[in-house]
User: What shape does this take?
Amino acid sequence: MADSEVATKAPENDAAEGSPFPGDTPAQKGASMGEHCTTDRPSPTGETPTGEITKLEGVDAYITKPNDYPHAPSKLLLFLTGGTGIHSVNNQLQADKFASEGFLVVMPDQFAGDPAPNSSTNPNATHETNPSLIEQVKFRAAETAKSFMIDMWLARQTPEKVLPLLHKVIEAAKEEFADAVASGGGVYAVGYCFGGKYVLVLGGEHPDTVMWGQAAKDEEQGVVKSGPLIKAGAVAHATSVTKDDIESLKAPITMACVENDQLFPDEIREEGRKYLNTNKIVHQIEIYNDVPHGEPPVAPHEEPLLKLIH
Assistant: This one.
């Protein structure tokens, strides 16, 4: 089916926080994002993105299409990135790979022009093998400052900010690319790190206010629920996932996880697996050992998504 290049390391980095969702905790109480979540890796030599950045309902989005679209049927894929956002060449190349698999890909700027601060050291820079004590102190100070910057960035990326943007993009994409939505029977979604959490949210059923990033209404007032907003989803090393994120799921889901991931704890994953099994939610969970968060060697693509709905 897809070649090995499609199933490569995830393209970027991330983190998340919540507030309207039960069980969410501030990002500062969890593990801070590490190097794999803040550095945009060197792009493959000789590869150039083929899509373009345009606007959907006022939101910037990178859009890339199969070569034979619209002459051949396509499916609409919402691609939610990690913290490096839509201007990352790696994210754009990954979106292009999905397009080569038959998806019309919409990758929105869910950060509204505020991607994660890229404060990591240039991976091509040289480092001293035996740094002096002063250099070691400077390095530790820089790492502390970087962690603080990431936590401050995370605090700004709230559901109140992100979800209304995603609603706008989904509605605009469904109108502009109605043929792709009809061809696939709905909207598919894939998300990495920060974007992974929001794929889970979009795949769940929540009080209508929560789906828009607002506080839930009191029970006495009556609760109108909405969702799922996607037909099927795939996530890789999602961050800040809560028990409620999984136990609200209604759409088929596939998850690529790493073992002992502080950003998606094993106990939440396993409790979620029990819920999915008990409630007969179609799902696939792959766990990768001995790799850090941000490095599972997978990029969910057409094949696992299609398996979920057959």
Notes: The longest strand covers residues 59-64. The CA atoms of residues 35 and 120 lie 7 Å apart. Strands lie at 52-56, 59-64, 75-80, 103-108, 187-192, 206-207, 225-226, 232-236, 253-258, 283-288.
